[in-house]
Amino acid sequence: MVVAKGAYYTDADGRQIFDGLSGLWTCGAGHGREEITRAVSAQIAEMDYSPGFQFGHALSFQLANKIVDLTPDGLDHVFFTDSGSETIDTALKIARAYWRSRGHTGKSKFIGRMKGYHGANYGGVGVGGIGFNRKLFGQTVDADHIAHTLLEENRFSKGMPESGFRALLMVFIRLSIVLLSQLALAACGLGAAGVRPTISLYCDNFLVYKMCARDMDRDGIVEFVYFEESEVVFMWREGARDDIPADMEIHQCAEAMPSELVATTNRVFFVDDETSYLERQDIRGGMMIEYITALPRVAACNLGSDQSRGESHG
Ligand SMILES: Cc1ncc(COP(=O)(O)O)c(C=O)c1O
User: Fold this and answer.
1) Distance from residue 145's CA to the centre of ligand 1 (Å)
2) Cα 133 from Cα 125, distance rounded (Å)
3) Phi and psi dihedrals of 217, rounded to 5?
4) What is the distance of C-alpha 11 from the center of its chain?
């Protein structure tokens, strides 16, 4: 883009492009408004910048008070930031500071939504639910992700969408697992007691299959998932196929994890005797939800190949 005026951009080839996003919501009053240009120029001429540390600027107090007037009662503190990403990291810090100042230093976990976008800064990629955005860095802040509500059938809804039951159900299952589940949880392959493995893994025997997730480089992101007993891999993270040890089998219907699943499984911890019950349930809950949908596919695939074998023999 080279020029912006009103509701249109002009690109380098002279094409006019309607700005349906209002400059990613930063130019709601339209582009190139003369009164805004005049006000910004006048301010730059008077004072272009003053440090934010230990200094204040009269206009920032004036704006903060105006915002307080506009916001509902109780929202009477304003913290200015320069972008959405910085805002999110600041909000995460404020939440942590709040609990720490009240003596709850252990309250450090954030809950995000799968597919949620919270910018590209350190905390935002962790609390956001887009696995791809933290692929290079691993999990940043301690965040867990509940189901999103971006359902196919809700596209183009006017007002409140009618369906959302699945997402709600997932949240419900998740909570039930944390609160009610009494099923045994197995930590597998941990080696001799007290010896931390060099890889991080987590196993779950809730389902018919006992499945394990393995994080080879201990960056908090699962490389692949396999059935414990047979050591057959049924899913791997995009780009991590080469990390699967040569002595493990890969299921004929194995496939790369969808990006949401990478986000769900980004917290694989070392599970040992000291891992609290609730934490185990919580880890399991996050992983289980998406696997529930993946495992029937593998089961159907097994069934299909059994049948075709049966047919050819018959
Ligand atoms: C909810 C949310 N958080 C954070 C951001 C990041 O904002 P920015 O691009 O200004 O860093 C966005 C931007 O789309 C957003 O929608």
Assistant:
1) 18
2) 6
3) -100, 10
4) 34
Could you tell me how far CA 90 lies from the centroid of its own chain? 17
- 196-212 b/e (C-beta count within 10 Å ≥ 16 → b): eeebbbbbbbbeebbbb
Using the atom order of ligand 1, give the atom closest to the CA of residue 24. 14
Q: How does DSSP classify residue 267?
A: -
Q: Confirm if 129 and 145 have CB atoms less than 8 A apart.
A: yes
Strand partners, 10: 3, 16
Q: Which residue's CA lies nearest to atom 8 of ligand 1?
A: 84
Q: Span 36-51, mean pLDDT?
A: 95
CB atoms within 10 A of CB 122: 15
Instruction: State how far the Cα of 42 lies from the Cα of 35, in Å rounded to an integer.
Output: 11
CB-ligand 1 contact for 83 (6 Å cutoff):
yes
127: tokens are 């609390």
User: Is the CB of 285 within 6 Å of ligand 1?
Assistant: no
Q: Confirm if 214 and 234 have CB atoms less than 8 A apart.
A: no
Say what angle helices 277-313 and 165-180 make with each other, to 10 degrees. Answer: 120
Token code pair at residue 308 = 């075709």
Model confidence, pTM: 0.57
The string of pLDDT tens digits covering residues 240-281 is 899 999 999 998 888 888 766 666 554 554 555 555 666 655
138-169 burial: b if 16+ Cβ within 10 Å, else e: ebbbebbbbbbbeeeeeeeeeeeeeebeebee
How wide is the angle at C-alpha 71 spanned by C-alphas 58 and 156, nearest 5°? 125
With bands split at pLDDT 50, 70 and 90, how would you rate the model's confidence at 226?
confident
**Euclidean distance between CA atoms 147 and 145, whole angstroms:** 7
Is any atom of ligand 1 closer than 6 Å to the C-beta of 9?
no
Distance CA 117, CA 42 (A): 36
* CA nearest ligand 1 atom 2, residue: 118
CB atoms within 10 A of CB 304: 12
DSSP state of 241: G
